[in-house]
Every structure is written in C-alpha cells, then in structure tokens.
Amino acid sequence: MPSAPEIEQAAGLSRTVVLVGLMGAGKSTVGRGLADRLGVKFVDSDAEIEAAADMTIPEIFERFDEEYFRNGERRVIARLLAEEPCILATGGGAFLSSENREMIGDAGVSVWINADLETLWGRVKGKTNRPLLNCDDPKGILAQLLEDRYPLYGTADIVVSSAGGDLHEVVILAIMQALNDAGYLPESTTNEGDL
Ligand code: S3P
Prior knowledge:
The chain is of the alpha/beta class and 195 residues long. The chain is 49% helix and 11% strand. The protein has helices at 4-7, 27-38, 45-53, 57-63, 66-81, 98-107, 117-124, 138-153, 168-181, and strands at 16-20, 42-44, 87-89, 108-114, 158-161. It has a 5-stranded parallel β-sheet with strand order 2-3-1-4-5. The relative contact order is 0.23.
C-alpha cells in the first residue's frame, strides 16, 4: 500500500473517474477526497439532478416517478462526462442502465466501491433521503438490491473494497493506486517508483 505523502504527488486526470456502487458505499465521501488529492473537480450526479429539477430526490420520486428520475440521471451523466475530467459520484442505480454504462465506458473509467450488507446498512439506516429505502423493510430491500446489482457493478473497470472498519482514506488510496497502475494518472505528476 503506498503511503499518503508519496501519493500526494499525483495530480490531474486523463479521464473522468465515475464512482459506482450501492447506497452507503461511500461514493460521495471517497469522491470528494479523491478529487481533493488529484486537484480536480468533484461532482455528484444526485446533487446535479436535484439542482436541475429544483427538488430533492424524494420529492422527484413522489411528484413524478422513478422513470422520470432515471431520465434526468442519464441526461446529467451525459452532460458531466462531456466536461473536463473530474471525479463523478453516481447514484446507486446509474450503472444499471446499459446506456449509462456505454457512455461511461466511452468517456470515463468506472470504479466500483464494493461493500458488504452490514457496512452499507450501518451507513444508510435511519436516513430518509433515499426513496427506495423508505419502506417497511429497508434492510431487506438493500439485501435484494445487493444481490441484483453486484454482478453488473462487477463489470466496472476498477473494483475496490470498502470494509466495515476501513477509513475512507484507505479506499481513496486504493483507487489512486489502481488508477495509476492502469495509466489514468499523468506520468509527469506521478512517481512510478513510489506508487
Ligand atoms: C438510488 C441511489 C441514490 C439515488 C436514488 C436511487 C439507487 O443515490 O440516486 O435514491 O437506485 O440505488 P446514492 O447511491 O448516492 O444513495
């Protein structure tokens, strides 16, 4: 595992890094830290959808429906992928759409933050901002989503694990290492010997 001071020499990005994974995987927190380290912008597709619609995600689901949300999500991801390389955290359902996966494959590099059910549940329980979990058995739904979605998340270009006790910093460093190994960090700003 590289040490923080060495890895801090890295800066810049050749492609947008698209973080995917289930609710509670830590996409936004890890994404912010990663963007900070690389000196690039961080964007969150959920936040962009909310800003564009001038509504929260629960309001969008309530006043319209999931399909309306997914259409907005697709448009926002397309727009963000056309901008300069950045760190893009996507909502948990974004990578299920073949159209989104294709756009991400063309213009970005996908990174799945894999986490087990207990880790995810520990982070999302008691929160009301995720319409899919506002039901009688949110943990059961989360378990079902995990089973349904993990095979697709597993097709991401890079896979890292976020275990229960792991600090997000460990995940950030693992992603930086994988991005460097795959040649997505500019050579001039990384030290091959150190990473
Ligand atoms: C969703 C995940 C949410 C948000 C929406 C739907 C999903 O984002 O996009 O509530 O389908 O898993 P987070 O994964 O950031 O919580």
